[in-house]
Design goal:
Number of strands of chain A: 18
Structural class of chain B: alpha/beta
Strand order of the largest sheet of chain B: 9-8-7-10-6-1-4-5-11
Low-confidence stretches of chain B: none
Helix content of chain A: 10-25%
Strand content of chain B: 25-35%
Number of strands of chain B: 13
Mean pLDDT of chain A: 96
Radius of gyration of chain B: 21 Å
Mean pLDDT of chain B: 96
Low-confidence stretches of chain A: none
Order of helices and strands of chain A: EEEHEHEHEHEEEEEEEEHEHEHEEH
Distance between the termini of chain B: 58 Å
Structural class of chain A: alpha/beta
Oligomer: heterodimer
Largest sheet of chain B: 9 strands, mixed
Helix content of chain B: 25-40%
Radius of gyration of chain A: 20 Å
């Protein structure tokens, strides 16, 4: 079996964490070739070659691949698909954009957000916001699979794969990039952070979200938010943890002013240790929390920040 | 211009999901069903496009069991003009896979000729997040997934997308497939007079066979299980106790 793993490349850099976690799953399926595609991808390809267990790296540099637009990226992957039994990617927004398109071009079903590999045809994936785990067996000749990174440990370093330069596929020219608005931050990335501090509707305002951010910075943590907090405009959408946001599984997850709707639990219940701070002692979040503190967050959070 | 909006009948957002004890799936008998929340946002966006004078007709379509008629009536009550139901399953527990749905939608797009298709980014039952992207591939159309802002500018659309690091804005050629994310808009509620009016709006009934599409699944469901539970821990009495537990007991700070 041969596996093509789409490396997560952003602005020419490899997201090592996401790629290495998907690699762990990909290695269970066969020999792994990593594809690094972008306007610039050579540095990313060199990084990917160092990951343990990578047999080969394909580096595709072309202006059309610069912003991971779905059409040219999917066309490239589909053009390479003949050599592989599996096409795999970490379940990032980029891969969720591209992989179903690849699958349809190959006339196969995509298998999204896989949390467990049973065998080369059989996969586990959460459905209904993680309220059920479905095991599915694919009858397609090729499997197109995205990997839920929070359930796999990252592959280590120490590889020395060869890097082969390849060309892009013909660009269908259907879309063009206009701009990115990426919040500059020194904080760790949400999906790979060891500690995540999240705020919910209970925080009450965008201004008071600073309390959450201060605690996060004290802990060297990433900042998350519930959908309710995002919908209320307290926090940007890319902080959203849950069914429709990001899925995280840090060593420590601190939920502040979050009631614990099932859609939020779907995004964080695999965390190693969960702390909940909420003034409502009946809040469902306490049913999954290892340590619960029933308290007014406006008193408890500054106190916690001071004493750490 | 016509706007096509596919809508899916799914378990209501607020209903607690029960996994059947025999591992055969999730219990959907006698459970409240509603329109997939992301599809409501797509319907709302289509109505706003029409209200701005940028579209003449909104067609909603649902693929699945006969009961999806109710979902279509909801969309008609919100403001869609007519509906198409493609019956492709008898049992409410049968989920038609995104690839088959995309093939049926492709046939409908070719028959109706919409200038844009607005899809929800994912259905909250199978959480697959695939139909819009697959339809776009099959049609060879442009694709803008996870939209939080949509502007039509003649023969192109400018779409701001929710991506991992923040927002990305792209310009796509029309006709286009756009999948919508939560923050695009706040869907309206249908008023009682509009619910009454919706009952008289046209709803065409078709079957998958009418379009010559094979809807048999590519993925066999081996089993469906409850996720590993998580036990509630302890309540601590103070911030000091919390810090002590995190340091000494959990060892995470």
């Amino acid at each position: 079996m041969a596996v093509l793993l789409l490396g997560e490349v952003t602005d020419g850099q490899l997201s090592v964490d996401a790629t290495a976690k998907a690699l762990t799953a990909a290695k269970m399926l066969g020999d792994v070739t990593v594809l690094c595609a972008g306007a610039k991808a050579a540095d990313a390809a060199a990084e990917a070659a160092k990951l343990d267990g990578v047999k080969k790296v394909l580096c595709a540099e072309d202006a059309s691949l610069g912003h991971r637009l779905a059409e040219p990226t999917a066309a490239l992957i589909a053009s390479l698909a003949g050599d592989y039994s599996h096409i795999v990617a970490p379940a990032t927004t980029d891969a969720k954009n591209v992989l179903p398109r690849v699958a349809a071009l190959l006339d196969v079903m995509v298998i999204s957000d896989v949390s467990g590999v049973v065998d080369a045809d059989t996969f586990e994936r959460p459905i209904y916001a993680g309220n059920a785990i479905q095991t599915v067996k694919s009858s397609d000749a090729k499997k197109v699979v995205s990997i839920r990174t929070s359930t796999f440990d990252p592959a280590g370093q120490g590889g020395s794969a060869s890097v082969e330069t390849i060309g892009a596929a013909a660009n269908p020219g259907l879309s063009e990039w206009v701009e990115d608005k990426v919040a500059a931050s020194d904080r760790p990335e949400l999906t790979s952070a060891g500690i995540v501090v999240s705020g919910g509707r209970g925080v009450g305002s965008q201004a008071d979200f600073a309390l959450i951010e201060k605690l996060a910075d004290k802990l060297g943590a990433a900042v998350g938010a519930s959908r309710a907090a995002v919908d209320s405009g307290y926090a940007p959408n890319d902080w959203q943890v849950g069914q429709t946001g990001k899925v995280v599984a840090p060593q420590l997850y601190v939920a502040i002013g979050i009631s614990g709707a099932i859609q939020h639990l779907a995004g964080m219940k695999d965390s190693k240790v969960i702390v909940a701070i909420n003034k409502d002692e009946e809040a469902p979040i306490f049913q999954v929390a290892d340590y619960g503190l029933v308290a007014d967050l406006f008193a408890a959070v500054p106190e916690l920040t001071d004493k750490l | 211009m016509k706007v096509l909006v596919p809508v899916k009948r799914v378990i209501d957002y607020n209903v607690k999901v029960r996994v059947k004890a025999d591992g055969s799936g999730v219990d959907l008998a006698n459970v409240k069903m509603s329109m997939n929340p992301f599809d409501e946002i797509a319907v709302e966006e289509a109505i706003r496009i029409k209200e701005r004078g940028e579209a003449e007709e909104i067609i909603v379509i649902s693929i699945g069991v006969k009961q999806a008629q109710e979902t279509l009536r909801t969309a008609l009550a919100m403001g869609a003009d007519r509906a198409i139901l493609i019956e492709a399953a008898d049992d409410v527990h049968t989920d038609i896979e995104p690839l088959a749905v995309a093939k049926l939608l492709k046939a409908v797009v070719e028959a109706e000729g919409p200038g844009i298709v607005l899809c929800g980014k994912q259905a909250i039952d199978n959480d697959m997040n695939a139909t819009g992207q697959m339809l776009s591939a099959l049609l060879g159309w442009s694709q803008a997934a996870f939209a939080s802002e949509l502007k039509l500018e003649g023969d192109s659309a400018v779409v701001t997308r929710e991506v991992d690091g923040g927002l990305q804005t792209i310009k796509v050629k029309m006709p286009a497939i756009v999948t919508v994310d939560l923050r695009l808009n706040e869907p309206r509620y249908a008023s009682l007079p509009n619910i009454m009016k919706a009952k008289k709006k046209p709803l065409e009934e078709k079957t998958a066979a009418d379009y010559g599409v094979d809807v048999s699944p590519r993925l066999t469901i081996v089993k469906t299980t409850e996720p590993a539970g998580r036990k509630a821990g302890v309540k601590v009495g103070s911030v000091d106790e919390l810090i002590q537990k995190l340091k000494d007991e959990a060892g995470v700070i």
